Amino acid sequence: MTDAIIQLQGVDKFFGNFQALRDINLEVQKGEKIVVCGPSGSGKSTMIRCINRLEEHSAGKIIVDGHELTDEVKDIDAVRREVGMVFQSFNLFPHRTIIDNLMLAPRLVRKTSKAEAREHAMRLLERVRIPEQADKYPVQLSGGQQQRVAIARALCMNPEIMLFDEPTSALDPEMINEVLEVMTDLAHEGMTMICVTHEMGFARSVADRVVFMDQGEIVEMNPPAEFFDNPKNDRTKLFLSQIIQH
Amino acid sequence: MSIDIALTLESIPKMLMGIGVTFQLLFITLGLGTALAIVLLLMRISGRWYLSVPSMVYIYVFRGTPILVQVFIIYHGLPGLEFVRESIFWPILRDPFGCAVVALTLNTGAYVSEILRGGVLGVERGLLEAGSALGLSVRQRFIYITTPIAVRLATPAYSNDVISLMKSTALVSTITVVDMTGIARTIVAETYAPYEIFLSLAIVYLIITWGIQKSFGAFERRMSRHVKQETAA
Asked: How many folded domains does chain B comprise?
């Protein structure tokens, strides 16, 4: 076998009669950065949401850091502790301050002491460059700041893997870079990352491999240079021509 | 028809002697009714049919019948049943005030339960997903994410229900409980001056309603302080 930290083998996913994922096979090595792109409805989000069991796959096998995802709650919890996730719509807890957003899960799930959780949270807020916002509520922050908080919140659990589900799609253009910079820092620190994004500049500079999905399938998967400069599949070519022409 | 000011001024203090009963009914039934509502809500959202179906039936029955009829059933109807007279609840059900508390609690529990459910359904799904992704258990998500947000969402409707419950307490005068309305009816029977007496009574209820609205207004402002764009930061 391999020493991949994430393995998807023949994964199918149905929503009722609609097949969202078809025979997905993907192995991600520790420290690898994967960018997933494709038209909307192609199954990108569904695929990464299966990795931390926000969606239940219908068939096939998903193994994350040695834990196979089944109905076993123990394994699901173990995987979720290893995997951090950042959402398109931030999903910060609106009724808690920034620092409380960061401290909640370590306190409840890891039973970290309050002082330790606070210290760790402050270190992470510094890392995403907004320690001064610690005592504000999410709504008082800009979108870019909120997304950086969301990244810090996920990092609070010391995950081995980070999943990003279109992290910049809900942002105003001038805020995209501050988020991508934080993500790039993370990548350079060796985090294993799977990012669903259409930021092709980010994909080129950070990704080890780019995965193109369409209609629930992985159509093409290659290192960025190969992927962008020499796409093989017609659907990939069409997609790239649509997003890069501007 | 002229208003007898002297009679009005004289009758208000008398009616206020019943305000204690009105408030007791309000606070006791609100406390018990809200507790009942939480139980009904947890049953309803448990995802287990043998809990959710009884909860739905209960809510349907108590929202689907007039509260006055419920009061009558409990006060006039239940004592006719022998097993009720022999049960441990008889000391409560023998007493008109006890019957009033039981009837209002059972009724308000059904309404408040639906109000709370509205709050729970209003919590954005993404927030619960974020909780899941962070490894929080179902229970932790319910306590730390759903509950605080649902309470905030449900507060305006809940305050309406508190006002409605306060007004419903007047119905207990029909089963011999001496609340403000009960006293007013006695005074009317003695003075034949329904206009002055009931008008004064209405004003007293209005003032109580105003107090409830003000209290909830303050509570809502406190609960939603994080929604304001720029507070004193």
From this structure: 1
Residue B231 lies in a domain: no
Helix (H) or strand (E) holding A211: strand A209-214
Among B126, B228, B230, select the one facing A87 at the smallest CB separation.
B126
Cβ distance B227 to A153 less than 8 Å, yes or no, reads no
Closest alpha carbon within chain A to B133: A80
pLDDT tens-digit map of B64-109: 999 999 999 999 888 888 888 888 888 888 889 999 999 999 999 9
- Residue B136 with chain A: CB contacts under 8 Å: 104-105, 108-109
What CATH code is carried by the domain that includes residue B174?
1.10.3720.10
pLDDT tens-digit map of A125-144: 999 999 999 999 999 999 99
Q: What pLDDT score does A246 carry?
A: 53
Long-range contact pairs involving B87-91 (C-beta distance under 8 Å, separation at least 24): none
Say if residue B131's pLDDT is above 70: yes
Q: Which of A223, A221, A173 is nearest to A199 (CA)?
A: A173
For residue A211, list its beta bridge partners: A36, A221
Q: Report whether pLDDT(B3) > 80.
A: no
B233 touching A (Cβ < 8 Å): yes
- Let me know if residue B232 belongs to a domain: no
Q: Which domain holds residue B162?
A: 5-223
pTM: 0.86
